[in-house]
Amino acid sequence: MNDIRIDNLMVEIEKLHNRNLLSKTVGPDYYEPGMMEYLECSEGMYKGDGTFLIRFEARGTRYEGRTELIEKVALDDVINVVRDAENQFNENNFRILTEKGHDVGNMPAELCNAIAPLYDAGELVITRSVVSFVEPISKRSRHAKQAILFVELEGKIYDL
After folding, report:
1. Phi and psi, residue 38, nearest 5°
2. CATH number of the domain that 120 lies in?
3. Quick one: how far is CA 141 from the chain centroid?
4. Is the pTM of this model over 0.85?
């Protein structure tokens, strides 16, 4: 197995964990649009036995009618994370689908690029994915442009 692929995934897991840690050090008045919101919703953990957990914010939630679909998504709903190698923007893409098959976003590109090589080689499987946080646009400020959706994903890396 090529260790660089696992190293890339571990870097992304650590980034998510560091976002969560940062949430505990900044005050409620600290705000940087697009960078510091919802820090506490992110997380990354490697459990040492090949299993990992990541919590990440879905991307692309304001396109293709996804904003309206997210209005019907609830905390702990099952989410299907589906490989999308035909994506025109990133051949490593994973789509995020509701249990009924509605497309509500994409996994962030950095995570896709770290997970796809292992997934495609059959060395990583996704064992569980659920909604870990959702804030539909109807519950946000009138200035908000998109819904917020976080996914908690558990997986296993083989041959470690």
Report:
1. 60, 30
2. 3.30.70.2330
3. 23
4. yes
